[in-house]
Structure formats: C-alpha cells, structure tokens
Amino acid sequence: MPLSSDVREVLKAWGRGAEAIGEVLQGQGSATWDEARSTYLGTLAQLFPAPEGVSFAEVDMGGVPGTLVTPEKVEDGRVLFYIHGGGYASGGPKGYHGLAGRYAQLLRARVYIPDYRLAPEHRFPVPIDDTFVAYRSLLEQGHSPRSIAISGDSAGGAMVVTIMRRARDAGVPLPVAGVAISPWANLTHSGASAKERDGLDPLCSLHFLTLLARNFLGDTLPTAPDASPVFADVRGLSPILVQIGENEVMLSDAIRLAAHLGENRVRVSLEVWPGMFHVWHLFGNLMPEADQALRNAAAFLETAFTMAGLTPAAPYSTPVDRPGHQDIE
C-alpha cells in the first residue's frame, strides 16, 4: 500500500528525531539521555500537534506527574487513561497532544496521560509501577471505574493489559475496557513477523527493539509477565481491542496476545490494518487509515461505557483465583 509523499516526509522526520535515542542506546554520539529524549519529544510535538478546541494542564497523579487533556464537549465523569509509548526509554505527554486530543474529542472524555519514569535510570518494573500508581489515583480522586477506559500505544499498549492485571491482583476496580495500539507484547520478539516484517516498518526494527528491551529489562528475563503480557495470566480482564499494522515487526505477537486473551475468556477484538506501520494513529488528518483506526478505538470504548451504564455493577474488586503455576506454550 503506497504512502503519500507527505506521509513519507513525516516518517523521515520522525526517524531523524529518534536517531539520538538509538545512538545513546548503543553508547554512541554525544547526546545524553535527557538531550536525546528532549529532541525526540520536540519532534513528536512538532509533527503531531494538538487539534483545535482542546486544552492541556499539568496534574499530579498520586505523585506521578501527568497531563490532563480536556475537549470542549465532555460526557459527565467520562475519563480515558492513556499510556504513551517509547520503549520505556522515551516519549511523554508532550508528544501525544495530537493523538490524545483527537481521542478526547471522539470520546467526549477527559484524557489523563501519566509521565512515568524511564529506563535506563528507572528500569523494570518502575515505569509500570508509576503507571499503576497513576491509574489508582483516578479512583482515589473519586472517578467511578464504570466511567474509566484505558488505552496506550507500543509499550503503553502492552501496559493496557498489565495495568488491568495489576488492578485485578490488587483488588482494585478495573476500567470498563481497553484499547492496545501496536502493543509491544512480547519482548522475546519470537513471533515470525519479527524477522519477516523487519525492514518493512519504517519506524521499528528488530535491532532497535532488542536494544530497547535490554535497556528496560536489565537483569529481568523478557518472559516476565509484566514485561511481556503474552506470558501472563490474563483471566478476568475487561474487554480489549488490539489494533496492529500488518507491516509491523510486532504483528505476530499482537495476534498472539489477542489469541491469548480470547483463550482465557477475555472478550477481545483484533484489527490488523494492511500496509500500516507502528502507531499510524498519530497521523490523523494525514492518513484516512489513522483517522478511521482511532474512530474504531473510540467506538469500542463508547460501547463499553454504554454497557457499563446499562448493567448492574460488577464485582470488579474480586481477584481471580489462580491455583498453581500456569505454563504458557
């Protein structure tokens, strides 16, 4: 599927903005982590600006800094908890004003984006711990779990599943549903697409993902359930939509994640978008596929909000009984 010249130019600029991240991962170049991250965030903010009619404010999320995105029209109490990507090493709310702003408008919801700490200064499981603290803060502020949905991309897409698991195991109310965009669901990169699609995706290569995984994990095995939800006990989670581009090196593992959820009685929907690359949703107003994918995500969550309002309150806080060890083939 050919991409327009405008899209190709934005992709090239995005890649240039991420070059310093790749260099510092390999101990090359002169940039520090802070400098490389700042360059990358600035690139995302410039390439994917906020839509009109959306406001942004810095907020505290239980000690984790965050950004609150508010559209002009808001359904009373409706909240989206959005987890940014960046391989647990980069990214932040500033780079997601465009995507989060459009999401907020489509859902008529306030969007909270936690600014979790990053590796290598804060390796596994710190970014996940921070994100869970931020999620719990929404409940502590008085938001009903029946009015909260969760979404995220790449590393944040994997955390959609992991944060639900953390909530389930802690007896904390789950959100009504989640959308995992281009989830980095398996840090072993054992899916067939890791080799077959390597070079097709203009943004993520197997080499780059391997560097990011080592940077994040430290001495932790890549099969750790919190790092790679394809190996996790996912029983009892809320409905989840998985969206993945067909050109992504993560394709096979995203499909595996969806199958794993379904086999464990989680209601799951899977969308594979032919020819699409990693987190193409950022390209709103540049690609019809980006706009439609985000509309699909919003519609999935809209349905979940509606169903939550029609059904009696579920026993969200009841942990799943997990007798013994479960081996995942």
Gist of the model:
The protein has 329 residues and is an alpha/beta fold. It has nine helices and eight strands. A hairpin with a 2-residue loop joins strand 1 (54-61) and strand 2 (64-71).
Task: Describe this protein's structure.
The chain is an alpha/beta fold. It has one domain: Rossmann fold (3-Layer(aba) Sandwich). 40% of the residues lie in helices and 15% in strands. An 8-stranded mixed beta sheet has the order 1-2-4-3-5-6-7-8, sandwiched between helices. Helix 1 (5-25) runs antiparallel to helix 2. The longest helix is centred in the C-terminal third of the chain and has 23 residues, at 288-310.
Main features:
Rossmann fold; disordered C terminus; globular; 15% strand; eight-stranded mixed sheet; 329 residues; single chain; alpha/beta; 9 helices; 40% helix
Spatial order of the strands in the main sheet?
1-2-4-3-5-6-7-8
The level of helicity is: 25-40%
CATH architecture: 3-Layer(aba) Sandwich
Count of spatially separate domains = 1
Low-confidence residue ranges: 314-329
- The DSSP helix count reads 9
**Global morphology:** globular
How does the major sheet shape up?
8 strands, mixed
